[in-house]
Give the backbone structure.
Amino acid sequence: MKQQMAREEKSFGDLFAELAAQTGNLVRQEVALAQTELTNKATAAGKNIGFLAVGGLVAYAAFLGLLAAVILLLGNVVPVWLSALIVSVVVGVVGAVLVMSAVKGLKNIDPVPRETVETLQEDVTWIKKEVT
């Protein structure tokens, strides 16, 4: 019976080594979680930045093409300055809608890896319990 209890009881050094190993594993898992979470958030941000850039380019291309063609066309009906103003306002509204949509998408992205922060707090609590 004594021999069996001796096998089940671990020395302080064994317990400390086990705690160190588990802590190392835990840290590696937390780093992996943080990398995954940040990669997902960076991908979403990149997508919205891409939309923002494309929206800006589309608005600029539309500005150049439509401004020239429609100003000339409307110049036959109204004064050329008025046709330029009308075309500029329409193209500006389209560009503004695209840019505002992309900015709204970027504002909805939370850059903080919330899951990682929560699990790190839980890990600190667990480690404090194990050490004391």
Observations:
- Residues 37-131 form one domain.
- The chain has one domain: 37-131.
- The radius of gyration is 31 Å.
